Amino acid sequence: MTRFALTLEFDGTPFFGLQRQAHGPSVQQAVEEAVLATTGEQVTLHAAGRTDAGVHALAMRAHLDVAKDIAPFRLMEALNHHLRPNPIAVTACAVKPDDWHARFSCIGREYVYRIANRRAPLTLDRDRLWQLPQPLDAAAMHRAAQALIGSHDFTTFRSVHCQAQSPIKTLDRLDVERIGDEVQIRTAARSFLHHQVRSMVGCLALVGMGRWDEAQVAEALAARDRQTLGLNAPSDGLYFVRALYPGE
Q: Is 103 a member of any domain?
């Protein structure tokens, strides 16, 4: 068996998430079916992140084990052929040691959340950004975000369906920047809780709209109570940016 590491780019709009679902299409199902069509083998795809329905990826890392003798480039080309017309692309493929694991070997994950801050309807970026027509104060959002940096109990920003054993996570980065009529929130950590990024973005958006004071983000964190969450941002604007591994 050969372990292949894949880098996946996908538009999450038509999928019920990355993980295989009983009630709808998933990225995992599409890739596993492409491998079956290529090699005749039933495989299991393991990914660095478990993105929800509608969440996108610029460079999701994943791995699978294949018995067939096939070169990485040939496997990548064949998978991209069989993945059509799904909005999924394998942008890189490499052989890895048997003990390399896309999820458990990962030491860092990065996301970006994109907000379209304009009144005109979205055309090219429909379903790919969260549109907020009211003016956002990106500088105030950035200042409020800094209260979340570091190691904290993120219960307030955790989905009630989260399966993580502990609500304590260490946030390495949470930056807010305006680029024209787009506000981008970039964040990085070793790992995140279910809905953590979307929950943080939702509260920062309330600050940007002037509905929350900057201090209320820190207060929501300290409350450790999901009921104090102001807003959970939709999945449309969330992108998995990259996964980090030792030695890469």
A: no
